[in-house]
Amino acid sequence: MNTATLGAAAPANPIPLRQDAAVIGLVGLAHATSHFSHLLLAPLFPVFIRDFGLSYSDVGLLMSIFFVISGMGQALAGFVVDRIGARPVLFAAIGCFLLAALAASQATGYAGLVLVAMLAGLGNAPFHPADFTILNQRVSSPRLGHAFSAHGLTGNLGWALAPAFLIGITALSDWRTAYLGAALLYVGVLAVLFWQRDKLLTEVVVRHGDAPRGGDLAFLKLPVVWWCFAFFLLSTMTLAVVQTFAPSILNVVHGVSVEIATLTISAYMLCSALGMLVGGFVAAYGQSHRWSSDRVVAMAMTSGAVLLLVCATGWLGAVGTMVALAATGFAVGVGGPSRDMMIKKATPKGATGRVYGTVYSGLDVGFALSPLIFGLAMDRGWYGLTLAGAALVLMVSVFAAVGVGQRTAVAR
Prior knowledge:
It is a single chain. By secondary structure, the chain is mainly α. It has one domain (about 15-200, about 220-410): MFS general substrate transporter like domains (Growth Hormone, Chain: A, Up-down Bundle), CATH 1.20.1250. It has helices at about 15-40, 45-50, 55-85, 85-105, 110-125, 125-140, 145-170, 175-195, 225-255, 260-290, 295-315, 315-335, 335-345, 350-380, 385-410, and strands at about 1-5, 205. The longest helix is centred in the middle third of the chain and has 32 residues, at about 225-255. The radius of gyration is 20 Å and the shape is globular. About 55% of the residues are buried. The model is unreliable at about 1-10 (pLDDT under 50).
């Protein structure tokens, strides 16, 4: 197998900042769209519970369906991205989101919502292997820390926009109109990416007839890949609790209105985005000073776990809990760019799409498992225990991050 990648080494001639910024901006727009789609259903769960007579476990299962399909598809999408390039895969993914939004606008019951979850999950599957293949190939090495920061930041902005967008239009009109608005949003994003499609072109893996069989799967034998997978699975389970159940916890425990409680998730995501902006400078500085990326990640996740545990006690009251949740988002966000740098260091040359697809499928598995596990606790009224459990899982992810660093050092 002969692999041609632009990200294997720094380019001989410096790439102009404007060119790097354009690529980073386009990938960021796509990533924001992906994260917006993570919350295509969740902000309106209280409405669906009311209108369709659903339980917390029912709506939690919708998120599990989304992320099971996304996780399975993401692992496979990495191979497709390496074979045919990131650009066509990215366009097809946004097309799936468009279909999901249109289906949501016509849903008349639980079966319709299941279809939405399936379409959106299929669309979400290719984003991380596609995004990181483009960034690693098209952005100069000295700017990768900032590229990863922008990538994470825009993703969080997508998360922050979704509740405000969907709840806002629902309040002004109704939820079906909100989903039609989301469909128009996807059309606009697809138009911009198609217009600037030359900046999203990537080189592909060329497989020759004499290449050894099974070579495409050789990376799966590397322990560090599975430590990365474990880190994403664990850290994402915590995020899923915040996104899916924090509004309901704030509403039931502290008497916060559904609208304000849902917007608290937007505040969490905005603070996380700010943390990622700061984290980009931390990652870039750390890269030039040979800091250990896994240690930065460990400190950020530990801080987030402590804050979330304080939220679980209920001592802070409504406003204090909302502020602490936002601070948790900032703490976790600071570690985001160093996390992506950690994965890059662990990735063998020529396997970017496959490794990112496999590793980031841990994110989808975490999102799939978390609503099922913690949804049972929510149905039993164990609200504080739900947040405490999320904090504990985030703390365990710290050990996985340290494990990645240790095994990357051994591999080198």
